[in-house]
Design goal:
Elements (H helix, E strand, L loop, with lengths): L1 E2 L6 E10 L4 E8 L2 E6 L7 E2 L4 H10 L10 E5 L5 H9 L5 E6 L2 H8 L15 E5 L13 E6 L19 H10 E11 L4 H9 L2 E11 L2 E12 L1
Helix pairs in contact: 1-2
The structure holds S-adenosylmethionine.
The site of S-adenosylmethionine has 23 residues, from helix 2 and strand 7.
């Protein structure tokens, strides 16, 4: 347990989880009723239960075309605290299926345990399914099966949690994702900043691209970017 000297509010370590392939260690802490996931040795948080509006927006914007669609299929990359998964389930019909890919087994355990309530236990929804592993394993150009792919595995289109994630945003990967999407499908990518070169790259990979700036929490806080790349 550590204590914030200014406020004397203790920070409690709830658990640690190893990232596969020697990727480091994630830490789950709790302070003043809120949860935080951080990467050991890196300042700042990867995720907090205090601010999650842009994680919700990722699913609301990326699934906006799916509300009325029967048997819609959505892939969420990165479970984190489950906010994007919960919003994707909310944005889709009762016949939808939402697959969430999570690289770190401990994160899934936390969501089935102490973290479960923060996003309303989305893993308990019978429409949700977990793929334990790299989201890239599900990009299969020969099988166009998702109507939306929502990516929030890092701070943006640059590796942060996991060095291998830079490959996710390579031209080859963006082509593979496009071919994994059904006609009119949407790739939505969360980013902590706006990078015009990523918009260009998405266009070059054959998408119709737009982006939206969203605030971290209820119209306040940092400005995040959601890229929306639509299959032509
Ligand atoms: C910022 S958090 C996601 C937050 C999430 N949008 C939410 O609503 O809570 C990133 C998550 O992606 C996971 N992750 C990182 N790289 C991944 C990959 N290549 N495939 C699947 N999951 C990955 C991390 O372990 C972490 O749980």
């Amino acid at each position: 347990m550590t204590t914030n000297k200014k406020t004397m509010i203790p920070t409690i370590l709830i658990g640690t989880a190893l990232i596969p392939n020697n990727g480091g260690e994630l830490r789950l802490t709790q302070r003043d009723g809120d949860f935080y996931i951080s990467l050991k040795g890196v300042s700042g948080e990867l995720m907090s239960s205090r601010m999650y509006s842009s994680e919700l927006a990722l699913a609301e914007l990326g699934c906006a075309h799916l509300q009325e669609l029967e048997n819609a299929k959505v892939l969420v990359g990165g479970l984190g605290m489950g906010f994007t998964l919960a919003a994707a389930l909310k944005a889709t019909s009762p016949s939808a299926q939402v697959v969430v890919a999570e690289l770190v087994p401990g994160v899934v355990e936390w969501n089935n345990g102490p973290l479960g309530d923060v996003a309303g236990r989305p893993l308990d929804d019978s429409r949700a399914r977990v793929h334990l592993g790299d989201v890239a394993e599900l990009f299969k150009p020969d099988q166009a099966k998702y109507d939306a792919i929502l990516l929030d595995v890092d701070n943006g289109p640059e590796a942060f949690t996991h060095d291998d994630n830079s490959a996710l945003y390579s031209m080859d990967s963006l082509h593979a994702i496009r071919q994994t999407l059904r006609p009119k499908g949407v790739l939505a990518v969360w980013s902590a900043w706006h990078d015009p070169s990523f918009t260009k790259k998405l266009k070059k990979a054959g998408y119709n691209v737009s982006y939206k700036t969203v605030r971290a929490h209820k119209g306040k806080g940092s400005k995040h970017t959601i890229y929306l790349a639509k299959v032509k």
